[in-house]
Amino acid sequence: MVRETAEVIEILPRGITIRFTKHGFCSSCAVSGICAARDNSMYIEQDGGHPFRKGDIIEVGIDEKKTSFASVIVFLIPLVIFVLSLFLLRNINEAINFFISLGIVLVYYLLVRLAIKKKGSYFHIKILKKL
Q1: Whole-model pTM?
Q2: What contacts 20, CB < 8 A, 6 or more positions away?
Q3: What pLDDT shows up at residue 109?
Q4: 6: β partners
Q5: How far apart are CA 123 and CA 67, in angstroms?
Q6: What is the pLDDT of residues 5-58, one digit of tens each?
Q7: Local structure of residue 123 (DSSP, 8 states)
Q8: First-residue to last-residue Cα distance in the chain
Q9: Tens digits of residue pLDDT in 86-106
């Protein structure tokens, strides 16, 4: 499990907002160099009461298998789709072929985004303990 410490910055009715430093989760991620995340804060939904207060330091974690799976979804599958569509459409103009293939990958990313909104709990970060 990839673990990181974070600070509770906001208490909400159904969860908390935390902020962690970029050297934490990001350093263990293979794509941290190209990530466009501007904010180090994240909302975590929590069942039951909130034993946390603003300013508390907590430990959070995510399973390493889930980060690997996310990398496959975000990088490997789109690459395969792009190359396969370039190959299948090779008989048309190269520029048109390129833009159609790019459009297919864009549709893939939109579908992934919808799937994450509906079933995003698979990738949720878990609160491990209060420090």
Answers
A1: 0.61
A2: 4, 5, 6, 7, 40, 42, 60
A3: 92
A4: 58
A5: 8
A6: 888 888 887 788 888 765 555 666 655 554 545 457 777 777 655 578 888 888
A7: G
A8: 17
A9: 999 999 999 999 999 999 999
Whether 85 has a pLDDT exceeding 60, the answer reads: yes
Structure token digits, residue 91: 């008989």
CB 9 within 8 A of CB 17: yes
Helices and strands of the chain, counted as H and E runs = 4, 5
**Rounded Cα distance, 8 and 17, in Å:** 6
As given in the structure block, the two tokens for residue 84 are 């396969």
Rounded distance between C-alpha atoms, residue 15 and residue 46, angstroms: 5
CA-only gyration radius of the chain, Å: 19
* Half-sphere exposure (Cβ direction) of 31: Cα atoms closer than 13 Å: 13
Question: Residue 21's pLDDT is what?
Answer: 63
- DSSP calls for 24-85: SHHHH-TTTTT------EEEEE-SS-----TT-EEEEEE-HHHHHHHHIIIIIHHHHHHHHH
d(CA 86, CA 94): 9
